[in-house]
Amino acid sequence: MRKTILGAAAVALATAAALAQSSVRDGVYTTTQAERGAALYEAQCLSCHGTLEAFFPEVAALLGDHTFRQRWQGRPLSELFQLIQVEMPQDAPGSLSVDETVQLVAYILEGNNLPSGQTALASDTVALSGIAFDP
Ligand code: HEC
């Protein structure tokens, strides 16, 4: 399993290098991914984070406001992916599959008014590290 991942990572690394200039403005997720992410978000994240569109000062962290954008500005999507995969939902960390995690990232991008595209967002951190969050 690990060997396969490393082999794929080597291939993806070359791809990532080619995509190094890629940005969340380039349409890096599909609407299908964002729709699935929306359902997951509603079921597992909304209780703590509130809606992406609304401003609720009482919730711990918002995923669609200026603070969130400033914190993630210029950082690769792989870091956001890993935080969600490892730490969220805070009451059941580690319970999301990689596909669910990438769907949530897609939904967060959509919630930040970033465009969707034809190519699905990849669920591997090497490819995601080539995409900068620069809304
Ligand atoms: C039980 C409450 C709770 C749930 C459920 C929860 N979160 Fe969180 N989340 C938090 C808290 C509190 C923080 C801020 C502190 C921290 O980073 O640990 C946070 C931080 C985050 C951050 C970093 C925000 C930033 O501004 O940098 C992301 C991204 C995130 N959560 C995504 C999710 C996603 C996606 C889900 C649903 C799968 C989820 N969270 C479910 C409580 C929760």
Q: What this model shows, in words?
A:
The protein has 135 residues and is mainly α. It has one domain (2-132): Cytochrome Bc1 Complex, Chain D, domain 2. The chain contains seven helices and two strands. The chain has helices at residues 2-18, 31-44, 46-49, 66-72, 77-87, 98-111, 125-128; strands spanning 22-23, 131-132. The protein has a two-stranded parallel ribbon. It is globular, with a radius of gyration of 14 Å. The protein starts with a helix and ends with a strand. The model has no long low-confidence stretch (mean pLDDT 83). Bound molecules: heme C.
Write the layout of secondary structure elements.
Elements: H1 2-18, E1 22-23, H2 31-44, H3 46-49, H4 66-72, H5 77-87, H6 98-111, H7 125-128, E2 131-132
Parallel strand pairs: 1-2
Helix pairs in contact: 2-6, 5-6
Tally of discrete structural domains: 1
| SS strand fraction | under 5%
In CATH, the topology is named Cytochrome Bc1 Complex, Chain D, domain 2
Radius of gyration: 14 Å
Major beta sheet summary: 2 strands, parallel
- Ranges with pLDDT <50 over ≥5 residues? none
CATH architecture: Orthogonal Bundle
CATH class annotation? Mainly Alpha
Measured distance between first and last alpha carbons? 35 Å
What letter string, H or E per element, gives the SSE order? Answer: HEHHHHHHE
Give, in spatial order, the strands making up the sheet with the most strands. 1-2
Q: How many beta strands in the DSSP annotation?
A: 2
Bound molecules: heme C
Structural class determined from secondary elements: mainly alpha
- Mean pLDDT across the residues is 83
- Count of alpha/pi helices: 7
